[in-house]
Amino acid sequence: MKWLTGNTKEILTALNEEAKLTQVDNQKVEEQVRQIIQEVIQNGDQALKAYSKKFDQVTLQDLSISKETIDLAYQRVEIEVIKALEAAKENIVSYHQKQKQHDFMDTEQKGVLRGQLVLPLARVGVYVPGGTAAYPSSVLMNVLPAKIAGVKEIIMVTPPSDEGIPDVILAAAKIAGVDKIFQVGGAQGIAALAYGTETVSKVDKIVGPGNIYVATAKKQVFGTVGIDMIAGPSEIGILADEIANPVYIAADLLSQAEHDTLARAILITNSPNLATQVEKEIVRQLATLPRKQIAEQAIQNHGRIIIVATIEEMFTIMNEIAPEHLEVQLTDPISYLHEIKNAGSIFLGEYASEPVGDYFSGTNHVLPTSGTAKFYSPLGVYDFVKYSQVTYYTKEALADAKDAITILARKEGLEAHARAVECRFN
C-alpha cells in the first residue's frame, strides 16, 4: 500500500491529483452504448436477442423467465442459503419500513389548504449483473425498498448464459417479490427498461449496479426514466487509533479490495505502529485469499495508508474522501458520530465489520461511490416515491393574497400571470 504523510492540505492535494489520474475518457463506450440504445428503440425484442447472441453467446427463444423455472431454482438452492436470505430480508424490511414518509396537510392560514402527497412509482426496473459472480444480496437490497414504498410492478433484468440464470439469483428474486424476470443484460437491458419492447414493459426508474456499459446506458437514458446513481468501484475508508486491532482492519480493507481491481481501500490513522502492523497483516491474509489476484492489484494500485497527527485531521481528510463505506475503529467510536459529514454507510466499532452491512444488518448496501456521498444517499424507500404538492384557496384567501401575487408577477414581466388572478375579482 502507498503511504501518505504530511499536513492536511498536502494530503488532500495528493489525493486530488491521484483522482484526476484515474479519470478515463470513455467516448468510445459512450458511442457504442448510444448505438445499442437506438437499435433497441427501433427493433425491440429482435435487437435484444441479437445482442444476447453477440455479447453473451446465447441464442434465446424467449426473453422471459417462467414462474416454473423460478420455483424450480428456488427448490434447488441449499436450505441454509434460503434461511440466510429470509433472515436478511427480515432485517432489511424492518430497517427500511422506518424510512416510509406520509402525506401531510396544513390549514395554518384561514381559507388555505396546503399539502403534499407521497406517491409510489408505478413500475421499477432492477438490473442484476451476471458474469462470474452472483449477488443475491443485491437483489434483496434493490427490490425490498421498492416493495415497501408500494411500487406496483418490479421488473428484473439479468444477462443470459448457457447455464441459465444462477439458481440463487432467481431464489432471491422470488423471496424479494419480483414480478417479472427477463434474461437480458448490458446496455441493451437498460434500453429495454427505459423505452420498452414488445415483451419488456417501460419502467419509471432503473436501479441496480453494472459494468461500465450498464452505467453509461443508465446515464444516457436518465431523463427518459429515473435512475438511482452512477456507481463506481467499491471503496472503504477506516479511521483507527493505536488501540485498534490490525487483524480486523486488514480483513476489512481486503473485503472491499476483493471486489474489483479498481476498488479503493484507505486507512487513516495517527499511529505509525498500527499502520505498519496492518500492512504486514494484509500481506499475511492475502496469501490465502481465493481472490488474491484481484485484491492484491487493488491494494497495490489503490490502497492507501494515511498518517496524520490528530483525530481531527483524520476526520477532515475522510470527510473530503466521502467514502462509500466508513468504519470508525477509534476509542469510544459512537462519540465521534457527529464528526462524520460525508459517508455512504457508517460502521461504528471493531465488531461492526463492513460485510455486516453488505448482508445482514438491514441497512442498504447500494451506496454512493467516488466521493458522491457528498450529495447522494444510500438507496432507500424514498428512491421509489415521488411527491405531489396540493394547494386549495377560498375566494377570500385569494383576495388577501391578490396584491402580493400581481406585484411579483408584473415585476417579472409576466402580465398573464397577474391577470389570471385579477380576473377572478372583475
TrEMBL record:
A GO-annotated cellular component: cytosol
Top-level EC class as recorded in UniProt: oxidoreductase
Active site: E324, H325
Binding site for NAD(+): Y127, Q188, N211
UniProt cross-references to PROSITE patterns, sorted A to Z: HISOL_DEHYDROGENASE
Cofactor: binding details: Binds 1 zinc ion per subunit.
Requisite cofactors: Zn(2+)
SUPFAM superfamilies tied to this protein: ALDH-like
Catalytic activity: L-histidinol + 2 NAD(+) + H2O = L-histidine + 2 NADH + 3 H(+)
Homology family: Belongs to the histidinol dehydrogenase family.
Name of the featured protein: Histidinol dehydrogenase
Species whose genome carries this gene: Enterococcus ureilyticus
